[in-house]
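Researcher: Quick test of sequence recovery. Tokens follow.
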């Protein structure tokens, strides 16, 4: 849809001066009783919205992060500056999300006032930790209130130059930082009797030629409240511990007099002296200049932290924090998992918390505190898991549009974040391949063929780019060297060549494109795709396969698993992989190898070796994270920059598909055909777990008792399901199935 479809005669408006974070209000009269009313709103930035003195919704950060409109080169700062050329030579698509609210209950006959507080959000971000920022323009808002009166008349109240504005209490309000001067807050500015005679009229601005999309994405909300523990107090500050790594904000209680400055600083770890570690604070802080009120809290951003400090220019004894808001997108966890191994339970629980805290503003983020961006590498490697474990269909449907937007229409290059944030690194296989893997995973989860129909032309454009940039049929990028990572962030210096990793992941994507072409009836494309697969496989073999050993890249960092995943190698390749990890019994892998390694071991019949990776007590292990008291997953096995990064959560997928054994058959979508095929793992004696699939709830549990394995499998009505364990094979019926097998 376009702008006028939603807004008719409305205009985007903003303050008439250099104030970027104003109050905006509009008076209007209603001459008859209101039958129904809806507010249609687009905030380029974030906003809080009010009618007649009442806040309309508890949704946070209205509206979702997007590729709103083109930027001007001179309004963008990126360090290093060389990244800007890579971005500004691209032709991208742009989307703006439009929120609709039923506001009938807030209106009455006579005088009414609509108003909002406008913040920068992702539209005008302010600098991140590294000094980079996005500036799409000045934060602006367009709105239309559609009134249907009881007499049948329909009236539109629209944003235009009759709206008025005044400076708000926000000194700065971007996505990374917020400062408030509470003395300037006007709490009653949308009351009908409020005097706005000294307010100025807004300025109208033309809308961009972007796509305008109805916002159906789950909003950020306060999910729960938590009480912090005061663990240290000095003459200048109080230090609090939340007990877990979280996203959100504290509510500071103060009895200070007017004009004092309260500062909060946030971080994930403490230093050797028990103080907030500066490195793991990531420059996260907020500032409040007090007006005598009791409560002080963030309105338009969040922070990621476990610990935080509170300082004041007033009396520190007058400051306390009794409650802290946990905030993220309202995406429910619809899975369960529990077994007798504490470390495996830790992996599941830490992943679930990490992933939920990284669903922010309609984007699956890499981390909620440093970059907060929708990295296509992290997002694509986790998408099947995220779609399986959470009620996340609407969020991923929105993120699919972001991925579509960030493909260069000229070349086919797919940027490393969606929405784009220039200066973010990635790779043409592990990151850009999101243009194939995310639509494919979405289709497999929900059976929505329209997603494939939309993305197949873009998949082909991506293929053109990769083939054009390839050197000797190996995947690389000749023109954008900074964007060519491989298996990012392993525990030791990367040993795998980037072209090897990217080429393997490209072949996996091409294989999926063959399947998509057949599903959609583009059979004329299949032979060319299959020929390209063979060309790239040959290049991988010619360059990285050792004929004398059967290894790829020396069998380091799951290199053999990368190859086996795309059908390369011989019997020695698998044998050497199994031998290496039988001895190592731990991960030595980065973002992608950590997914492929246990998958291949499970799939090829080595579940005990695979499980040894999960239960490893090596220095690079989940056990060490659990032992260190972590509650979320880290960005690196040791010396991690971020302590809230979901990318190493990918092995959770195999807990469902191979340990519990819940897998779709290859010809199934939306879990219409399911195989329950649990692996034989000696260390697991008691386990249960469930998934809420589009076809209903599937649950598997078993206990080992007196030389027997007692299975309970719950199957929804209307699906085909078969059970396999050792030499037992039988169909399952809807409802609860009891099966007893020999150990």
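Model:
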């Amino acid at each position: 849809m376009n702008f006028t479809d939603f807004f008719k005669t409305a205009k985007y408006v903003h303050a008439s001066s250099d104030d970027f974070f104003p109050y905006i209000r509009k008076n209007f009269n209603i001459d008859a009783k209101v039958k129904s009313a809806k507010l249609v709103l687009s905030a380029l930035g974030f906003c809080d919205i009010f009618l007649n003195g009442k806040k309309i919704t508890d949704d946070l950060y209205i509206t979702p992060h997007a590729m709103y409109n083109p930027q001007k080169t001179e309004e963008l700062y990126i360090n290093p500056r060389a990244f800007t050329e890579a971005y500004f030579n691209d032709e991208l698509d742009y989307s703006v999300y439009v929120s609709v609210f039923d506001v009938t209950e807030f209106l009455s006959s006579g005088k009414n006032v609509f108003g909002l507080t406008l913040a920068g959000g992702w539209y005008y971000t302010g600098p991140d930790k590294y000094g980079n920022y996005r500036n799409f323009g000045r934060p602006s808002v367009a709105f239309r209130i559609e009134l249907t009166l009881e007499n049948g008349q329909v009236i539109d109240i629209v944003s235009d130059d009759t709206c008025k504005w005044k400076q708000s209490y926000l000194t700065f309000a971007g996505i990374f930082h917020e400062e408030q001067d509470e003395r300037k807050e006007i709490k009653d500015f949308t009351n009908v009797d409020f005097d706005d005679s000294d307010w100025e009229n807004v300025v109208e601005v033309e809308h961009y030629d972007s796509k305008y999309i109805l916002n159906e994405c789950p909003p950020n909300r306060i999910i729960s409240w938590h009480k912090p523990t005061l663990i240290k107090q000095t003459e200048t500050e109080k230090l609090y511990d939340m007990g877990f790594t979280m996203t959100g904000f504290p509510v500071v209680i103060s009895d200070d007099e007017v004009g004092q400055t309260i500062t909060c600083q946030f971080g994930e770890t403490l230093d050797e002296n028990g103080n907030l570690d500066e490195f793991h604070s990531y420059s996260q802080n907020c500032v409040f200049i007090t007006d005598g009120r009791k409560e002080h809290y963030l309105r338009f951003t969040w922070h990621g932290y476990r610990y935080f400090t509170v300082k004041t220019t007033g009396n520190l004894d007058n400051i306390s924090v009794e409650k802290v808001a946990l905030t993220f997108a309202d995406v429910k966890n619809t899975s369960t998992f529990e077994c007798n191994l504490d470390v495996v339970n830790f992996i599941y629980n830490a992943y679930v918390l990490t992933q939920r805290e990284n669903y922010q503003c309609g984007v699956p983020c890499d981390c909620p505190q440093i970059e907060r961006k929708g990295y296509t590498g992290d997002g694509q490697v986790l998408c099947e898991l995220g779609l399986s474990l959470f009620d996340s269909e609407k969020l991923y449907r929105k993120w699919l549009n972001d991925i579509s937007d960030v493909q260069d229409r000229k070349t086919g290059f797919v940027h490393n974040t969606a929405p784009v944030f220039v200066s973010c690194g990635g790779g043409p296989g592990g990151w850009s391949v999101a243009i194939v893997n995310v639509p494919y995973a979405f289709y497999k989860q929900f059976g929505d063929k329209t997603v494939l129909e939309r993305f197949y032309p873009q998949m082909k454009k991506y293929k053109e780019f990769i083939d054009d940039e390839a050197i000797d049929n190996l995947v690389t990028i000749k023109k954008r060297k900074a964007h060519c990572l491989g298996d990012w962030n392993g525990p030791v210096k990367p040993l795998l060549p980037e072209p090897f990793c990217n080429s393997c992941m490209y072949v996996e994507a091409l294989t999926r494109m063959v399947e998509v072409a057949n599903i959609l009836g583009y059979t004329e494309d299949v032979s060319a795709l299959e020929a390209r697969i063979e060309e790239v496989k040959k290049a991988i073999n010619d360059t990285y396969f050792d004929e004398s050993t059967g290894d790829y890249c020396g069998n380091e960092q799951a290199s053999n698993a990368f190859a086996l995943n795309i059908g390369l190698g011989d019997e020695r390749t698998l044998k050497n992989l199994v031998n290496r990890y039988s001895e190592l019994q731990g991960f030595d892998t980065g973002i992608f190898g950590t997914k492929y390694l246990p998958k291949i071991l499970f799939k090829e019949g080595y579940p005990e070796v695979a499980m040894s990776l999960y239960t490893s007590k090596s220095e690079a292990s989940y056990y060490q994270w659990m032992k260190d008291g972590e509650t979320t997953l880290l960005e690196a096995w040791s010396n991690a920059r971020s302590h809230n990064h979901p990318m190493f959560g990918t092995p959770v997928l195999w807990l469902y598909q191979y340990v519990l054994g819940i897998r779709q058959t290859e010809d199934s979508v939306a879990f219409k055909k399911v195989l329950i095929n649990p692996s034989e793992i000696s260390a697991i004696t008691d386990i249960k777990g469930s998934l809420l699939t589009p076809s209903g709830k599937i649950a598997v549990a078993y206990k080992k008792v007196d030389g027997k394995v007692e299975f309970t499998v719950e199957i929804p009505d209307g699906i085909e399901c078969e059970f396999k364990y050792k030499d037992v094979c039988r169909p399952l019926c809807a409802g609860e199935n009891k099966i007893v097998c020999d150990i």
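The two ends are 59 Å apart (CA to CA).
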